[in-house]
Amino acid sequence: MTLSPSTGSGETDPGGLSDDALLARYAEGDPSAARLLLDRLAPRVLRLAYRLLQDQAEAEDVTQEAMLRLWQIAPDWQPGGAKPSTWLHRVAANLATDRLRKRRGVALDSIPEPDDPSPGAAEGMIEADRRIALDTALGQLPDRQRVAVVLRHLEGLTNPEIGAAMGIGVEAVESLIARGKRRLAQLLAGRRDELGYER
């Protein structure tokens, strides 16, 4: 995955600067600022894209496209508004949603199961089954509900941050999350025993 922008020789280490300041430094031609911003933000964008798409290659494509768009708007970035991370979440969610809409005809069985890195056999199998069940259920939510639930409960964003990322108000975020959680509960209700959840 090639996410680094191409820039000329740069300045000193900008380690302690905010994302806004780093983006401004990148716009001025500082490649160390770009690398630091990439290290800070790309893993979060990649994680979000993967949770929405369940496909590593597509998630990497979305991350690359989102970061390229950030590099392109860097010269015009206005500090004090949305944070670069919030802007990236919005772009990545929109790009992922577009890809999901294009693949609507794909059967759930054809989506690859995520890798299970956990070492314990029984616990790992239960955890993998839970993750697959959750990912499958998330895939059945309407796009905006899925994005809101993933950003809140899997990525840990606050409702105002989600609102900024999705371009909606906090009340709309709360409604999307509540409806998404209710639907997930319905979709997973019959599998509580199978998945090892207590009643």
Mind explaining what this structure looks like?
The chain is mostly helical. It is 64% helix and 0% strand. The longest helix is centred in the N-terminal third of the chain and has 23 residues, at 31-53.
**SSE sequence, one letter per element:** HHHHHHHH
Please estimate the helix content: 55-70%
**What is the number of helical segments per DSSP (H or I, 4+ residues)?**
8
The secondary-structure class comes to mainly alpha
Beta-strand percentage range = under 5%
Structural Rg? 19 Å
Number of strands: 0
- Characterize the main sheet: none
Ends: how far apart?
43 Å
| Broad shape | elongated
> How much is the average pLDDT?
79
Low-confidence stretches: 6-13, 106-122
Q: Can you give me a brief rundown of this structure?
A:
The chain is mostly helical and 199 residues long. The chain has 8 helices and no strands. It is elongated.
Name the descriptors.
mainly alpha, 64% helix, 199 residues
Topology:
Blueprint: H1 19-27, H2 31-53, H3 56-73, H4 84-102, H5 121-139, H6 143-154, H7 159-166, H8 170-188
